Amino acid sequence: TYVIAQPCVDVLDKACIEECPVDCIYEGQRMLYIHPDECVDCGACEPVCPVEAIYYEDDLPEQWSEYYKANVEFFDEIGSPGGASKVGKYETDHPLIAKLPPQAE
Ligand code: F3S
Ligand code: F3S
């Protein structure tokens, strides 16, 4: 799966959403999360993110290694809706993201 990491927090550019053929990039309050079971590893989202927040799981920079878990665990309660556009923005974030201080410049 692909993973969204810290650079997305408080930026939420959303260019990635337009590229995903399976609509598996879900919106939290402060960042977006890729569904690990719905992502088909097409890689289309990765080059369009202006802040380089998206990585293939094996290429995730060391300082953001926890974001693999954050993307996966975000869906623990949500499950697999099978499409982000129909569920809209979630009211929550993974605890790792929720506790971060404001990231925007
Ligand atoms: Fe975030 Fe980049 Fe997408 S900032 S919303 S991962 S285009
Ligand atoms: Fe979609 Fe990116 Fe996966 S475009 S299918 S989330 S690699």
Can you characterise this structure?
By secondary structure, the protein is of the alpha+beta class. The protein has three helices and four strands, in the order E-H-E-E-E-H-H. The strands form two sheets. Strands 1-4 form a two-stranded antiparallel ribbon. Strands 2-3 form a two-stranded antiparallel sheet. Strand 2 and strand 3 (about 30-35) form a beta hairpin. It binds FE3-S4 cluster (F3S) (2 copies). One FE3-S4 cluster binds near residues 4, 15, 16, 53 and 54. One FE3-S4 cluster binds near residues 19, 22, 39, 40 and 44.
Instruction: Give the distance, in angstroms, between the N- and C-terminal Cα atoms.
Output: 29 Å
The run of helices and strands is: EHEEEHH
Instruction: Specify the helix fraction band.
Output: 10-25%
Number of strands: 4
Oligomerization: single chain
The residue-averaged pLDDT reads: 97
Shape: globular
Bound molecules: FE3-S4 cluster
Runs in which pLDDT lies below 50 for 5 or more consecutive residues are none
User: How large is the share of residues in beta strands?
Assistant: 5-15%
Helical/strand content category: alpha+beta
Number of helices: 3
Summarize the structure.
The chain has 105 residues and is of the alpha+beta class.
Keywords:
alpha+beta, two-stranded antiparallel ribbon, 4 strands, 16% helix, globular, binds FE3-S4 cluster
